C-alpha cells in the first residue's frame, strides 16, 4: 500500500473536529493537538523488511494539571485512540497492537499547552544477543558530554530528568533513580553518558533489562526507546536531540550486525516531576 503521509495531518484535523473538539469544551487546543499527533506518528514510523510501515502504538500526552480530568475521561481516551488509528490506517500505516494512551500532567503548563511522547511498545522476546554500542568497548570510555534535556518517563506517571553523567537505577535508596518495585533488582541498571549519548547497562539484574522488546546487556539509547526493567516500563526522551546517524534508514537492525543504530520514536516533552507517588523516588544524595 502506498503511504500518503502528506494527508495525515488533514485526516487527523477532520477527526479531531468531529470527535474531540466537542468533548473538550472551552479549550483552544485543536491546532496543537492535530500538529503534535501528526508529528508524533510521522516521525516514529518503522519500515519493516516486508515493506509494511508500522506506526507507533504508545502515546503519552502531557497536559496542564487543571485540564487533566477532562483528558482522562474515558470518552476522551477512546476518541484519541480512534483518531490515531483511523488517520494512520487511512494513509497506509499498520499497527503491531492497538494504540494505548497515557495522560500525565505538568504543573507549569497553561490550559492550552500539550506535549506528545510516542513510542513502539513491544513485548519482550526472551534472551537474545545484547545490542553493542558503536564504541566497541563502552566500559573503557570516560563518561562525558551529558545529553541535553534528556529524561525518563517511569511507568507513565513520573518524569525523571537525566542531569548526571552516571545514573544508577534500582530498589536501593542509594540509586539516583529509586524504583520501589519487587520486580526490580536492588542494583538493576545504569545509564552512562558517553560521547554525547546515554548508554544503558544491565547490572546482572535478576529480571533482565529490555529495550524495545529485546533483552540487552548494553545499548545506546535514542529518544522514544521503551525500556523494560523486568516489566517496569520506562521511556527515554530528549528535547532537541542530536541528528540520528540512521535518519535515512528506518529498517530494524539485525542484532548480530554489531551496531545499535536503530529506529526509535521521537519525543517532544518538558522534563518535570509529574507524580508525588511514593512508588518512585528521586534520591538527590550525592548529586
**What is the strand tally?**
17
Question: What's the SSE pattern?
Answer: HHEEEHHEEEEEEEEEEEEEE
Side-by-side strand order of the widest sheet: 7-6-16-15-12-13
N- and C-termini, Cα separation: 52 Å
Give the mean pLDDT: 75
Rg, rounded, reads 19 Å
Kindly name the structural category.
Answer: alpha+beta
Instruction: Describe the largest sheet.
Output: 6 strands, antiparallel
Question: Judging from the principal axes of the Cα atoms, what is the shape?
Answer: globular
Count of helical segments?
A: 4
Low-confidence stretches: 123-143, 244-280
Instruction: Name the beta content range.
Output: 25-35%
Range of helix content: 10-25%
Characterization of the model:
This protein is of the alpha+beta class. The protein contains four helices and 17 strands. The strands form four sheets. Strands 7-6-16-15-12-13 form a six-stranded antiparallel β-sheet, with no helix packed on it. The relative contact order is 0.17.
